[in-house]
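Why show two proteins at once? Because comparison is the fastest way to build intuition. When a single record is shown, students tend to memorize it. When two are placed side by side, the eye starts asking what differs. So, the first record is below.
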Amino acid sequence: LKPSLRMPVYVFDINGAEITVIPCYGAGLWGPIWGYIALNADGKTITGAVFDHKGETPGLGSKIADAPFCSEFKGKTLDLSSAQSFAVAKPGSLDNPEHGVDAISGATITSRALGLSIDMWARNYSAYLIAAAAENENAQAAADELTETNENVEE
């Protein structure tokens, strides 16, 4: 990434858990597609996803905006260390199902476009996500050490 490049990132505290949300967008079959991926503090585990479109085929590509499709992303992970961080692919064709979801039947182009969009934006955000995860891990380790020290003092 260029040092001067600035991209939006949203960080929320939800019930004590830090959630990072990154946007993604690209070109679908008939127009733009876009969405948001919510990640937990490790910067790679997906806690939620939502997508929408301008003009994908009703009943086919338009299903990217449906809750059942979006719910398939929960618990999946981004593989920020590989050439492909995430995929939306034909059922049964994923090399590692942990890093992808099944494509929508009959919506091959929209599904492929969404997968490419997620992968591209995850890679664009990877430096930030990796650094934030390390910072969260260091903060948690410091908190754990402080708690242990306080428990030893009380004894």
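Second record. Ask yourself what differs from the first in the token line.
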Amino acid sequence: VLEDGPALARRLDPADAFEFAASSGKEPATSLQDCLESSGKNAWAMDLNCSGGWQVHMLFGVAPMERAGHVGVPWMAASREMRRERRILVALGRRAVGLFGEKWPVLFNQVHGENHRARKWLDHIGFSVDRKTNPFGPNQEPFHPFMKTEEICVM
């Protein structure tokens, strides 16, 4: 999966490229590589072409939050083509969130305030997206925190 980052960065959906730059100040390829490296074995790639000839259209994963091992930081980046496949994105997102929740009872990250499509998608796959924004990133742009918690049974 690590080798798929540069290929997707070249075809990244503009909203994802903008969000990477706003949150980190880095180029999309570098940000994607950082996400993949921090996620380790908890990152996956997806191709839309089932007839052969691998071409990555989506990378997603979850990284452990530093100093809070029970919190996972989910992320996703997709090509323009994948963004048009709304049903696949919602179904895959719900499945991924379920798998992530098995290992991390709390999932938390932030989405850019102007990324309305991503906020709507996050809502559809089970996250609570805060209406308020917080300044974040090198230019202190508006980001909405989003979170999902799994119920933990303590005896």
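One difference worth noting in the second protein: Helices lie at 4-10, 14-24, 28-39, 80-83, 86-103, 116-124.
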